[in-house]
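Researcher: Re-running this chain for the archive, since the previous output was lost when a drive failed. Same request as before.
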Amino acid sequence: MKKRILLSYRYQEDVVKPLAEFLEISPEELMEIMIKKLDMAGLEALHPRAMQARRECLSKKLEFDLNLCILSDFLLLISMDDKERILDELEKMIDEGKDYESVLREGKRIILEILRRVE
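Model: Regenerated structure tokens:
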């Protein structure tokens, strides 16, 4: 039953194949690892958790690549609300299919606009 879950199209395309490729192992080996390490509940929840993790990691990557952690959390040049608004806006752009580099350029433009704003 566990193997059947992992062999489903969505699990293969969204979780198993990308992780196996990243780890440079076969999808079969990764599935065996998952079968040994996860119970049925864990396997059944694997796909939604992986999609949630991908989204969260993307947000963290954007935050890091745009130095928002430094600008907002440490230097206090950008408010936490603005930081969240920027990340939400950029994530939507990625969802719409824009490439990562153009999203980063737009993020930098927005950051500069906020930094230059006189309050």
